[in-house]
């Protein structure tokens, strides 16, 4: 069984048994995650959000069952057309035996992937936390320099840590701005979630 088949099998197991599902593939490319989200949405789910979990900030992509009429119609149509997706069997929107989108689906998967990337960067860019780490590290290095007398080594670190954190925030903001432009061009609408973080919502088709 190929890696793509294993991903699809695990996804369908969640789809058939749960109303909320979570994709956790630490070494998978985001394009693969985007394809899996597309498949899940074909069966009545919708992308919800990204969480970064643990010390290594592993990405968890969460989806919930969509109660909307469009989602129910789409799920019914795909359940009839693709009743048993998996190894050796067709999967909505993908080439057989892979998670590579067919040309007419490629743009949809790219938008989903951009949404995931945008939300992931937003989850990683906790400004208060990063600045606290940067300035806290600077104070720690200064104290260590005073206590040990190793100013030549520790003073540069005290200066570089806050600068590194500020640089990381700027790079993150630049990447998110570019993604925001792509999402806006694709018809997505910016909104604020409950925590005040900006996200994008895709337009809902008016017909099935």
Write the layout of secondary structure elements.
Elements: H1 3-17, E1 20-23, H2 30-42, E2 45-53, E3 58-65, H3 69-81, H4 103-124, H5 127-148, H6 151-185, E4 189-192, E5 198-201
Antiparallel strand pairs: 1-3, 2-3, 4-5
Helix pairs in contact: 2-4, 4-6, 5-6
Keywords:
two-stranded antiparallel ribbon; 208 residues; 2 domains; 3-stranded antiparallel beta sheet; elongated; 5 strands; alpha+beta
How many H/I helices? 6
What gross morphology would you assign?
A: elongated
Percent in helix: 55-70%
Compute the number of structural domains. 2
What is the distance, rounded to the nearest whole angstrom, between the alpha carbons of the first and last residues? 34 Å
Largest sheet: 3 strands, antiparallel
How big a fraction of the residues is strand?
5-15%
Radius of gyration: 21 Å
Query: Strand sequence of the main sheet, in spatial order?
Result: 1-3-2
Number of strands: 5
Q: Mean pLDDT, nearest integer?
A: 85
Oligomeric state as shown: single chain
Give the ordered list of helices and strands. HEHEEHHHHEE
Low-confidence stretches: none
Decide which structural class fits the backbone: alpha+beta
Describe this structure in words.
This protein has 208 residues and is an alpha+beta fold. The protein has two domains: 1-124, no CATH class; 126-208, no CATH class. The chain has six helices and five strands, in the order H-E-H-E-E-H-H-H-H-E-E. A three-stranded antiparallel sheet has the order 1-3-2. A two-stranded antiparallel ribbon has the order 4-5. Helix 2 packs across helix 4 (103-124). The two termini are 34 Å apart.
